[in-house]
Amino acid sequence: MQINVSKNYEELCKEVANFIVDEIKELSSPLLCLAGGDTPLGVYKNFVESRADFKNAMFIGLDEWVGLDGADSGSCRFTLDQSLYLPLAIEESKIQFFDGKATDLSRQCNETNQLLETNGPIDLVLLGIGMNGHVGFNEPGSSLDSICRVVSLDETTQTVGQKYFETQQELKQGITLGLKQVLDTRTVILIVSGEKKRSIVKKLLEDEKIDPSIPVSSLWQHPNCHLFVDEVAYSE
Ligand code: GLP
């Protein structure tokens, strides 16, 4: 894992945005997986301001809250629509995203697994880290062999997840790409910022080994993983 420490959130986002543009510039049709959540928003702002060229890219969703879709403010899809897909006029046909409101969620998983079987692996994934060390909705205890599935969410995730919504939500389950699909990705980028993430960053970095109770630590086995962190999150 290569570690890159930035002075502050602004610098961090600029560096991640530049890194991504550079990584994919030689690819004719990159398959990208960009996380929702708050942390990457500054990266997407950079993409929008610089009118980053994603015209040949395909996008695959990382995760979604079960029961929500792009019409729900605070859902993963809503966040990506507002911050990236709509401002950059990315066509719907280029986006494969989970519908957390679908009646048949296993079909959603199968379709995504199938797409990755046919068009995968993903070229680049940008991941945030949950307070409990989750990536996507791969919660503590997730298997390294896991593929796309519906999961029960940890207490921590249910509580912390309320920050995305104006009114209290029931956030019992999520739908997510699996750790295997993350680990199969050619380039993995982790972005972490702020005081609240200090303790998970410390846990990730202190042992440099895979601990199933900290899903993000599975990335120690990835040959091309880049951790971008700001000084505040890195300081312990
Ligand atoms: C959320 C999402 C993840 C996200 C992570 C960190 O619950 N499932 O995809 O990357 O937790 O979110 P944030 O960047 O808001 O801290």
Condensed summary:
The chain has 236 residues and is an alpha/beta fold. The chain is 32% helix and 17% strand. It has 8 helices and 10 strands.
Keywords:
236 residues, alpha/beta, Rossmann fold, 7-stranded parallel beta sheet, 3-stranded antiparallel beta sheet, 8 helices, 17% strand, binds 2-amino-2-deoxy-6-O-phosphono-alpha-D-glucopyranose
CATH topology: Rossmann fold
Categorize the overall geometry: globular
The percentage helix is: 25-40%
Q: What is the number of domains?
A: 1
Bound molecules: 2-amino-2-deoxy-6-O-phosphono-alpha-D-glucopyranose
**Count of extended strands:** 10
CATH architectural name? 3-Layer(aba) Sandwich
Largest sheet: 7 strands, parallel
Class per helix and strand makeup: alpha/beta
Strand order of the largest sheet: 1-10-9-6-2-3-5
Word description of this protein:
The longest helix has 16 residues, at 9-24. Helix 7 (198-207) links the parallel strand 9 (187-192) and strand 10 (225-230). Helix 1 packs across helix 2 (41-49). The chain has eight helices and ten strands. The protein has helices spanning 9-24, 41-49, 76-85, 105-119, 155-160, 179-183, 198-207, 231-234; strands at 2-6, 31-34, 58-60, 63-65, 95-96, 124-127, 149-152, 173-176, 187-192, 225-230. It starts with a strand and ends with a helix. The chain is globular. The chain has one domain: 3-Layer(aba) Sandwich (Rossmann fold), CATH 3.40.50.1360. The mean pLDDT is 97. The strands form two sheets. Strands 1-10-9-6-2-3-5 form a seven-stranded parallel β-sheet. 32% of the residues lie in helices and 17% in strands. The chain has 236 residues and is of the alpha/beta class. The structure holds 2-amino-2-deoxy-6-O-phosphono-alpha-D-glucopyranose. 2-amino-2-deoxy-6-O-phosphono-alpha-D-glucopyranose binds at residues 35-39, 62-63, 127-130, 136-137, 157, 161.
